[in-house]
Amino acid sequence: MFLRHLSLVNYKNFDSKTLEFDPVINCLVGDNGVGKTNILDAIYLLCFGKSYFNPVSTQNIKHGTDFFVVEGEFEKQNRTEKILCSFKKGTKKVIKRNGKPYEKFSEHIGFLPLVIISPSDRDLILEGSDTRRKFMDGVISQSDKVYLQNLIKYNKVVSQRNSLLKYFVANHTFDPDTLGIYNEQMNSLGTAIHNKRNEFIASFLPTFKEQYQTISEKDEQINLSYESQLGDDTLLNLLEKNIEKDRALQYTSVGVHKDDLSFTIAGHPIKKFGSQGQQKSFLIALKLAQFDFIKGLADTTPILLLDDIFDKLDETRVSRIVGLVKEDNFGQIFISDTHADRTEDVVKNFHQSYKIFNL
Question: Do 285 and 331 sit in the same domain of this protein?
């Protein structure tokens, strides 16, 4: 699978831009602020229906205008797939495949698999559990429609249960039977989600460790583990035990929406004990393992976006990543960088066709 054509109207800093891409390697070069990352983000938008860097649609419209349109023409399994994503202030976002709008955006997830490696991935280490949980859910959802639907339903039930808890407090009332209905729904959906996340980590972990060792060339004991309250008890029991707490807080304090991933090196949190180089290698290994995982389950090779990657790593790590990417298991690759000469020197080593776009 590859992206042949991209057209932007009023997207971020672009009023109008059209690009024709190489099916293998594409390099976006130029000074900071010219829009290299915005082009990568537009590609991400076409694959997921939302921006990677700012999911608030109104904030992705070019200043002084009230709408954006992003169009892309993909080649997938010898078929042309035209994807359009548009948004106008005051209306709902629209995603179309070959001219036909999706009724549910979730139907599009996984159709055009993609992995992005970006400096903003540091949030996976620095931010809270929600960021890491979204990463895990995003990887699984690209290849498992049932999981994605369970996740959507579960989050809806949690929202409804939270509204009910607020209603109880506002109206000085309590209805355990109605609350019990939501508990049962959460238990059924949450248990399925928990089981799938456990399966995912078991299959993902060996690939992740292998990628890290290749990038770092060090025998460092890195690990990622799935942390969940459901490891020790059923969700139904947890909900019943915490009813009084939830009534006081007016929200649901237990469940798979509180799960987390633990990132460690030598048994200690990498956030506190990992060097900058170790953290960068950890994150890139995480994303390359994501690529391998999705490719293994998808019907096509994911697109790979490398955002400003060479500027954030030392030459040794860059050369190792290039060595990985040179292998035949990769498809179309997009690279953004501030130095055209450096980028061309790197991509020449791929011995593949490429295009360089000076922005």
Answer: no
Contact 69, 18 (CB under 8 A): no
Shared-domain flag, residues 130 and 240? yes
CA distances, 95 to each of 16, 99, 292, 355 (Å): 19, 9, 27, 28
Sheet holding 94-97, edge to edge: 14-20, 2-11, 67-76, 79-88, 94-97, 100-101
How far is CA 209 from its chain centroid? 20
Measured CA distances, 357 to 7, 145, 308 (Å):
15, 36, 14
Tell me: pLDDT of 202 over 70: yes
CATH number at residue 322: 3.40.50.300
- For 77-97, b/e burial (b = at least 16 CB within 10 A) is eeeebebbbbbbeeeeeebeb
The answer on 158 and 28 residing in a single domain is no
Report the half-sphere exposure of 148 (CA within 13 A, side-chain side): 17
Which residue bears the tokens 């699978």? 1
Does residue 203 lie within any of the structural domains? yes
241 CB neighbour count, 10 Å cutoff: 12
Query: Global pTM?
Result: 0.91
Q: What is the pLDDT of residue 276?
A: 86
171: in domain:
yes
Structural domain harbouring 156: 124-296
Angle between helices 145-170 and 129-141 (to 10 degrees): 140
Query: pLDDT confidence of 309, banded at 50, 70, 90?
Result: confident
Encoding tokens for residue 339?
A: 């130095």
